[in-house]
Amino acid sequence: MLLAAMMAVPLWALTSxxxxxxxxxxxxxxxxxxxxxxxxxMKAIQKDxxxxxxxxxxxxxxxxxxxxxxxTVIQPGSVLTSxxxxxxxxxxxxxxxxxxxxxxxxxxxxxxxxxEMVKRKARMILTCNEVEGFNKENRYxxxxxxxxxxxxxxxxxxxxxxxxxxxxxxxxxxxxxxxMYSNEDKAIARNNVIIVTKTLxxxxxxxxxxxRESRLIIVGHAHGFQTGKxxxxxxxxxxxxxxxxxxxxxxxxxxxAVGEVHATVYPKGQKSPYEDKDxxxxxxxxxxxxxxxxxxxxxxxxxxxxxxxDLNTSSGNIPTEVTGPLPAGSGAPDNLPPGxxxxxxxxxxxxxxxxx
Length: 356
Fold this sequence. Notes:
The chain is built from three helices and 23 strands. With 356 residues, it is mainly beta. It has three domains: 15-92, lipopolysaccharide transport protein A fold; 100-193, no CATH class; 199-356, no CATH class. The protein has a six-stranded antiparallel beta barrel.
């Protein structure tokens, strides 16, 4: 009788099973048929990847591992967290859902204070609706409301300090789909791409980031604003660019536009037209609610002596001065400050807008 009672008790001791080249352990594991249930925390190790979760299920027939609640996948240089994850053993593929968040530590080559290129670590944080990983291809695909920020990596910072530092990223990317290739150090963003750095704000249908070359290529109705100075101590000015392709060199803070280029340089010393844009929109909405009508503003562009901007280009395009309101359809932003504006460009050649 005692022996029969002992045999009826589930195995509560630490249990280990294998799923392909993955080893799964749990403090409390039960099974029925070919389905194993880990209830006392689950840990799965596969090559250099370690997966942990509060509980999990392994279906040996389908060869699928399901990790549930507080899921964490640690790999060299990256940490992926989510509420739910499925690992397809035969396909060597994972799908993370439920607030997935990927944090990677990467090396960046930047220009130091003395002008020389130096390597510094950066922290990249990705959030989206779903992350799909293909381990054999070293490829990740983020889908739905993709948001990626990058900021300097600080050794030993507390969680509170890290959260505060995330408010001032060096770059900010939003799109609908993002493919990342770890071996090639390449990423491709698609659909409603918006990129913001310290000096650049650009949009397009697609963006390709080549990490080893420190080069970002924006294509498909490419449109960008870049701030810069003609010389140290000079007032900051803004260049607006429309082109088939915009190439941005991240470590040099240099931009080149190619194909059907149209560019405008705003007057020196004037505020960037997209600065505090969100604040202005909120203010307009507030006025609209308080006044009971829709608030509208009209851009008044008039001639102002001494505000004529300069632009040096290598394409040989000749600037044309416009002293009145810009024509409809020119793509000019709302609420331009008073001054002379210079549309530049054409269907051929390239224009370079470089902060110096």
